Amino acid sequence: MSDAASTPDSLVTPLAKAAAVPVPAADELAGRFPLVPNAHPATEAERAQALTDLHFGKVFSDHMTHARWTRGEGWGSQETVAFGDISLSPAAAVLHYGQEVFEGIKAYRHADGSIWTFRPRYNAARLNVSARRLALPELPEEDFIASLVDLVRADQEWVPSGDGESLYLRPYMFASEAFLGVHAGGVVDYYVIASPSGAYFTHGLQPISIWVAQDFHRAGRGGTGFAKTGGNYASSLLPQQQAAEQGCDQVCFLDDVTEKNLEELGGMNIMVVDADGTVRTPHLTGTILEGNTRSAIIRLLQDEGRKVVEDTISLEGLLADIESGKVTEVFACGTAAVVVPLGHLKGEGFDVTISGQEVTHQIHDRLTGIQYGRYEDPYDWMYRLV
Ligand code: COI
């Protein structure tokens, strides 16, 4: 079964199509970022300690991959080197105007010790969608995947094997040219760093609580909402702090035009399960990040025979539907967070509890089953790195 086959057209986006293009085997891509080994890697004991009690994004492996682009010359000098501080001019454009894009993708250890990643072409294609919006150079998709192959092969001992653990890979690209004029940088650096990680939310699959921001929006029409760029996350931090002050785990944003409709959370997409089994998720209006996990879940739910629709989901309607029992579950999804139920939806003047979790748990099991090799992968989503 091919990835894009049999899904209704409206939900087969260009990124979903890109993800379905076969990738050459890792052995063919390996070596594009030649390894210069870290002279002082962590000792076995240090690594074992670092892999104990994993949280999200706190420890880093021994190496990182790097490439530099210069205007007129293109990409050059690709390498895998020791993880460490980078040297940047205080005038580097990224520090002033935020010309940066990034990705998030994981390496999963299967029971037989092999290491896999999930739909890497999706992230490769999305990095380039983001790069175009931020006037950054595109990285050839197979170089993107090769950078993951070389890094994970260098640091394979850093891929954890505990329940729900993975090596979180963070590819990113930024303008490093030193200048203060507002124009696209002529020197750009691309890196991938790797962080052995556990659950994004410390309480794992426990329901999270959401604060709906009403004074702030994540993105506006014609802006950068669909791109994975630091600015979108920077602007979510103050509302995220307000969410925390309200005792909530995450912030949820409404659209900037009507200020009524759900868009996404601070760092993940949102899905609503109706009592009749239909699953709804906000339309990709250009202000929402098109998540790889969102896309895969849509496909999995459809193949279970569920109706999945992109919809305009108003906060008012959602609150009424939770109250009446028309909506039984709401969940968040993303690479880092995977799939997590929403237990509370809170905002100015409301605080509702959502108790259902059945579909959320099913889809979590189905998705992670494929990612960790517990279930067959009929979509060819998994790509063997090692
Ligand atoms: C991811 O899910 O990979 C992201 O980049 C989102 C961020 C909240 C960690």
Q: What does this 3D model show about the protein?
A:
By secondary structure, the chain is of the alpha+beta class. It has two domains: 16-199, D-amino Acid Aminotransferase, Chain A, domain 1, CATH 3.30.470; 203-372, D-amino Acid Aminotransferase, subunit A, domain 2 (D-amino Acid Aminotransferase, Chain A, domain 2, Alpha-Beta Barrel). 26% of the residues lie in helices and 27% in strands. The protein contains ten helices and 17 strands. The chain has helices at 14-19, 26-29, 44-50, 93-97, 120-133, 141-154, 230-245, 292-303, 315-324, 358-371, and strands spanning 63-70, 74-82, 100-102, 105-109, 115-118, 166-175, 187-197, 208-212, 250-254, 262-265, 269-274, 279-282, 308-311, 327-334, 338-347, 350-353, 382-384. The strands form two sheets. Strands 8, 9, 10, 11, 12, 13, 14, 15 and 16 form a nine-stranded mixed β-sheet that branches. Strands 1, 2, 3, 4, 5, 6, 7 and 17 form an eight-stranded antiparallel β-sheet that branches. A hairpin with a 3-residue loop joins strand 14 and strand 15. Helix 5 packs across helix 6 (141-154). It starts with 13 loop residues before the first helix and ends with a strand. 2-OXO-4-methylpentanoic acid binds at residues 104, 267, 334-336. It comes from Actinomyces radicidentis. One of its GO terms (molecular function) is branched-chain-amino-acid transaminase activity. It catalyses: L-leucine + 2-oxoglutarate = 4-methyl-2-oxopentanoate + L-glutamate; L-valine + 2-oxoglutarate = 3-methyl-2-oxobutanoate + L-glutamate; L-isoleucine + 2-oxoglutarate = (S)-3-methyl-2-oxopentanoate + L-glutamate.
